[in-house]
Design brief:
Length: about 600
């Protein structure tokens, strides 16, 4: 399994950014400076910041101090600003014995930090960032000129403190700011601008830019047009150098997947060797996965003790890497999460002795992750009796007919065929057989992504209505699947469903609905022959001339009823046969 925490190891090629951003953070001509490291959730912001901190600590440890501050840890506390100042002061004092003079300055800074309860007196004026001195007076009952002196003297004392400690620069890394509430986001920005704006200070802030913009917009509510300008101007005042993490290239994600898999098998020296040769493996050929496979094959067992297991896993995952890249949009955390879910399911299957094929397990997980709507429809149309999916069955039958079988009256089937790449992936190897029992795979799926368990209806009236409504819906595949799912219910509930559908069959004006109801009733009555008479009573009230499709299905239904031993239906069957030109033509042809 792979940990979701940030890493110091460069598995994604971030080294091309690390050195440049580190040197930029210490650029004298740019001080004071705030750098924004922007990226989506899981894009690697925290890992990149860790690498920058590691680089600075290693190369400039004598003259530069770095501080890591996780803003989200203080989300529920009132004094997030004071906490940030105290974190910085603590880092400066760390591992040092202060002289009496320096201890005095340190104590003064701590005292002033406690005074700065910014949340209570910072003005809502985003552009000027001017303190609200009335707020000062209300909070501390001190005169405004004394508070002004306190604010001004803090920066002087802070710069003096750094100079006497012989520290040329302090670099503060603020992480997880985008997880905070809007007020907290703005409070952090205010303190960056107002209280630690000294030439020796650099701030590196990691966040999702859209969430930061939203937080600022919420804090300073203006008209729609004005809000956009206010947010833009505010950020430009705070963030001098924005850096957005580029979306990972396909070759980077391909190498990342291979590195993660090999990482489980490598000894420490092998791990460092792999990261060191990563650039060459990426640039060696167009088939990057093969490059990693060849590298692993050439290693001794002291580097990869279980070489056979490593090579087998690399081989199995290779066909699906391209799908992961497209489906997960090059997001490193999503890739790691996918592999963790796969590993979890493999372990559960092994422990519980669940019989699954590894290649199909991966394929279905790719579908689940990449095409979530389709996977949900697959589950919704799952028949617990046979373990098959009505939706999957239709897709395979349409493909086998080579265009002869048309797409049925089903929105979910049409949506599947209109989704780019989906049908090809479903039908490509490894082949999913039309009668494949999906039960073990869907059982494992419950352990991770699905918010609900597989269909398991209760005996409540509400559930009876729900099933009946699906059968009497506009989607044919859902209707048939719901009828098959209903067969496992207690007999009294099934009878309730049939009686409700009996009324819908007569009353519905949409010509598709009676057809779907009739298909559903056929499935149910095949298993519960005692319910045939209820449906037959409804058919006596229907004019077959008004719905040719319904007449054909009803005719088949009546034939099956006769074969099941139901008597007294000859006249009704004749009525449906004579009223349908298609049935009559077929009968004459025979």
């Amino acid at each position: 399994m792979w940990c979701d925490k940030e890493t110091m190891e460069d598995c994604l090629g971030f080294s091309v950014y690390t050195e440049t951003l580190s040197e930029l953070a210490l650029e004298k001509d740019l001080a004071p400076l705030t750098i924004g490291i922007f990226g989506d959730w899981g894009s690697g912001k925290t890992s990149l910041m860790c690498m920058i901190q590691k680089y600075i600590d290693y190369k400039y440890k004598e003259k530069v101090k770095t501080v890591w501050f996780n803003a989200w840890q203080y989300e529920g506390k009132d004094e997030i600003q004071s906490a940030l100042i105290h974190s910085i002061l603590h880092k400066l004092k760390e591992s040092q014995t202060l002289s009496q003079e320096l201890q005095g300055i340190y104590d003064q800074l701590k005292e002033k930090a406690d005074v700065f309860k910014l949340a209570k007196f910072i003005t809502k004026t985003a552009l000027t960032l001017t303190p609200d001195f009335n707020g000062f007076l209300d909070c501390f009952k001190q005169e405004s000129d004394k508070l002004t002196d306190t604010m001004e003297s803090f920066n002087k004392d802070f710069q003096n403190f750094l100079a006497k400690l012989n520290i040329e620069r302090i670099v503060v890394f603020i992480d997880d700011l985008d997880r905070c509430m809007p007020d907290r986001v703005v409070e952090i920005f205010e303190i960056v601008k107002l209280f630690l704006n000294s030439p020796q200070s650099t701030f590196v802030i990691g966040a999702d830019i859209e969430k930061i913009e939203y937080a600022i917009g919420e804090k300073y509510k203006e008209g729609t047009k004005e809000k956009s300008r206010v947010v833009r101007d505010y950020l430009e005042k705070i963030i001098q150098v924005p850096f957005s993490i580029p979306e990972q290239r396909p070759e980077d994600i391909t190498s990342y997947v291979n590195i993660l898999i090999l990482g489980k098998y490598l000894m420490p020296e092998g791990w460092q060797a792999l990261l060191g040769i990563r650039p060459q493996l990426i640039g060696k050929s167009q088939d990057i996965s093969s490059s990693f496979f060849d590298w692993a094959s050439a290693q001794e067992t002291k580097i990869i003790p279980d070489k056979k297991g490593a090579l087998e896993e690399l081989k199995v995952i290779k066909p699906y890497v391209a799908l992961l890249i497209r489906g997960l949009k090059g997001n490193p955390r999503q890739v790691k999460r996918f592999l963790n879910i796969l590993e979890l399911r493999r372990r559960i299957a092994a422990t519980k002795k669940i019989d699954v094929k590894h290649d199909l397990l991966i394929k279905l997980l790719v579908i689940e992750y990449t095409w979530q709507d389709f996977f949900k429809n697959l589950v919704d149309t799952y028949d617990p009796t046979t373990g098959t999916s009505e939706l999957l069955r239709e897709i395979i039958e349409i493909q086998k007919s080579q265009g002869k079988k048309k797409i049925e009256d089903s929105d979910i089937l049409k949506a599947a065929f209109e989704t780019p790449g989906l049908i090809k992936f479903v039908l490509d190897a490894p082949q999913i057989d039309i009668d494949l029992d999906l039960s073990p795979y869907l059982l494992l799926a419950q352990t991770a992504l699905l918010p609900k368990k597989l269909p398991a209806y209760t005996t409540s009236e509400e559930e009876v209505r729900n099933i009946s409504n699906v059968i009497a819906g506009v989607d044919k595949i859902r209707a048939i699947a719901a009828a098959k799912q209903a067969i496992k219910l207690p007999p009294e509930i099934i009878e309730g469903i049939v009686r409700k559908l009996q009324g819908d069959l007569i009353a519905n004006e949409d010509p598709r609905i009676p057809v779907h109801i009739m298909l559903g009733l056929k499935e149910i009555c095949r298993n519960y022959t005692n319910l045939y008479p209820i449906v037959i009573e409804s058919l006596k009230q229907i004019d077959p001339k008004k719905n040719e499709a319904l007449a054909m299905i009803a005719n088949d239904f009546l034939k099956e009823a006769g074969q099941a031993g139901i008597s007294g239906i000859d006249d009704l069957q004749k009525k449906f046969e004579e009223s349908s030109p298609i049935i009559s033509a077929l009968k004459q042809k025979r």
